[in-house]
Write a structure and sequence with these properties.
Blueprint: E1 15-20, E2 25-30, H1 41-54, E3 62-67, H2 78-85, H3 90-109, E4 114-118, E5 121-123, H4 125-132, E6 135-139, E7 143-145, H5 160-168, H6 170-179, H7 185-190, E8 196-198, H8 203-215, H9 219-231, H10 237-252, H11 255-265
Parallel strand pairs: 2-3, 3-4, 4-6, 5-7, 6-8
Antiparallel strand pairs: 1-2
Length: about 270
């Protein structure tokens, strides 16, 4: 992996960002292992800006996000974020909560597929970041909790009440967001929150393998798929069908569609651009 040099993409100070030029896979590593990758104001801000920049980075085809050490992310740092928030008035608090929501929006608007490689504790804002990923691959140790109500906050934080019911259903989402209780990896997989569970120590390799597989695919088609998943959540059926008809016609004009056909006729693997 190498640093990704781009005029649009600054090197972050608060986490690691590297890129495999051969596969087109970028990897974000939350890098405060001594604090179980708890988030600071700076981490929130830099993550938001990084996902915004990745959206327009033509050399990046898939993004993997993971955490260094024993956990993925335990949410906002009690000392660096929670304490200082008591010094803010409503407008100051709203500035912070909007920034956290902007991170999730940047992840969902990032056209490349985003894969979460989850290990250890996945809690609070860390759980919502994981939920905002397109695919979640988890280690057997990856227990998850939306802890907000347990500290007197709404379980509807950073888009959790929009994202989670669409993944696991309204009833299960209501329970997780209201109780704030931890769910182990086996249960998270059973209810559909985790796409796959692998042994501890293998999660990053499994996530990277999937990322490389997707990166070999037709990027434009994957981008259109993610955009449709985002937009159609609030559409009526007739509107969604028209949107998909237009998207599919657009994809048929893309060179990857012809390449897939030529590869089939010539009995070879397609070489997507």
């Amino acid at each position: 992996m190498t640093d990704l040099k781009s005029p649009r993409l600054e090197t972050p100070r608060s986490f690691l960002l590297d890129w495999d030029a051969e596969t087109g896979v970028a990897k974000i590593t939350l890098n405060r292992p001594e604090r179980l990758n708890a988030l600071t104001f700076e981490v929130y801000d830099e993550l938001r800006n990084t996902f915004r920049a990745l959206d327009t980075e033509p050399e990046v085809r898939v993004v993997v996000i993971t955490g260094a050490g024993r956990g993925f992310c335990t949410g906002g740092d009690v000392e660096d974020i929670i304490g200082p928030l008591f010094e803010r008035d409503f407008e100051g608090l709203l500035e912070f909560t909007r920034m956290t929501c902007d991170l999730i929006l940047a992840m969902r608007q990032c056209r490349q597929p985003v894969i979460g490689a989850l290990n250890g504790t996945v809690a609070g804002a860390g759980a919502v970041i994981a939920t905002a990923c397109d695919v979640r691959i988890a280690a057997e140790s990856a227990r998850i909790a939306y802890l907000f109500t347990r500290v007197g906050l709404s379980g509807a934080d950073m888009g959790a009440a929009w994202l989670l019911p669409r993944i696991i259903g309204f009833g299960r989402a209501s329970e997780l967001l209201m109780t704030g209780e931890f769910v182990d990896a086996a249960e998270a997989h059973r209810i559909g929150l985790y796409n796959r569970v692998v042994p501890d120590g293998e999660v990053l390799a499994a996530a990277t393998a999937l990322a490389e597989k997707l990166a070999r695919g037709p990027s434009f088609a994957l981008q259109m798929t993610k955009e449709a998943l985002n937009r159609e959540a609030h559409m009526e059926l007739e509107e969604a069908l028209e949107a998909e008809a237009r998207v599919q016609a657009t994809c048929m004009l893309n060179p990857n569609f012809r390449e897939a056909y030529d590869a089939f006729v010539e009995k070879r693997k397609p070489r997507f651009v």
